Amino acid sequence: MARRRTSAESLLPEFGFTELESRLYTQLLRLGPVTGYRLAQQVGKAPANTYQALAALERKGAVIATESEPRTYRPIAPEELFRALKHKFDTAAHAAVDALNAVHAPIQEDRLYRITTLEQVVLRAHTLIESAEQIILFDLFAQPLTMLRDALTAAHDRGVVVAGLVYESPRPAPYLQVPVSAKDFVTKHWPGLQLSLIADAREVLLALLDEPSEAVLQGFWSDSAYLACVHHSGLAAEIRLAAADREQRDPLAHLSLLAARPAGLKRLVTPNTTRTKEL
Predict the structure, then answer these.
(1) Which of 45, 140, 186, 201 could lock onto 145 through a cystine, CB 3.0 to 4.6 A?
(2) CA-to-CA distance for 177 and 233, rounded, in angstroms?
(3) Residue 173 sits in which domain range?
(4) Is 83 helix (H, G, I), strand (E, B) or coil?
(5) Nearest Cα to 194, choosing from 231, 140, 117, 249?
(6) Do 238 and 143 have their domain in common?
């Protein structure tokens, strides 16, 4: 019967450890300092294979060994091991980024790309926010706003104008947050969690996220200046409209999407046409 790995052992291969290295390290954590021969007996492997894996663990900084024979092996504490692994990874990652940036020649393509996973949406959102130099406009439901709040604050702190629509009671933030007056209607009927970002009227990211599964129902990113400018203009108008609407001083508020509730909105929020009269 094949030996079933413990949960502790199953985690280590994610960090570059072989199955045998993982077994030896976790066994050392259980036993404390032991000889390689005894460790080979404990895991049921040939001594030669065991010593080879122990040597690899020494190189990775996971174990240390005595100088005297027979050599006794001692595990490094997990916190110390992963602190060292993180430092090594960060150092290598920074070097790789510098090397790759040296050969990277960004080209503005003016195209529209689909974004299909939540990870891609979040990473693209952070990249867009971090690259902004002048102004960021956003339209964010509560959950996407929570994911991006720190990044938006950091952008504001470095001098970028940050403003947007929110659908919850605004939490204290240094940037402008304008609550949507029809937030109850929107959060109830909108077919997902909205995430809209425009940076410097240069890039635009739009995503509709499914709340229970975190799947991306719709997701698009574009570096088209034309599309970004159009979306910037529209979202800027919505932010100003929402601010004016709260002060009841906008005579043209009835032209907004949520006030007019035209056929396209009804089609979007009520796929079942029998329900459109409810709106």
Answers:
(1) 140
(2) 17
(3) 112-270
(4) helix
(5) 140
(6) yes
Residue 26: closest CA among 66, 52, 53: 53
One digit per residue, the tens of pLDDT, for the chain of length 279 reads: 344 455 778 888 889 899 999 999 999 999 889 999 999 999 999 999 999 999 999 999 999 999 888 889 999 999 999 999 999 899 999 899 888 888 876 666 778 899 999 999 999 999 999 999 999 999 999 999 999 999 999 999 999 999 999 998 888 999 999 998 888 888 888 999 999 999 999 999 999 999 888 899 999 999 998 999 999 999 999 998 888 876 656 666 667 776 777 788 777 777 654 434 445
**Are residues 70 and 121 part of one domain?**
no
pTM exceeding the 0.70 threshold for the entire prediction: no
Is residue 94 situated within a structural domain?
A: no
Q: Is 117 helix (H, G, I), strand (E, B) or coil?
A: coil
Count of domains observed in the chain: 2
Task: Write down how long the chain is.
Answer: 279
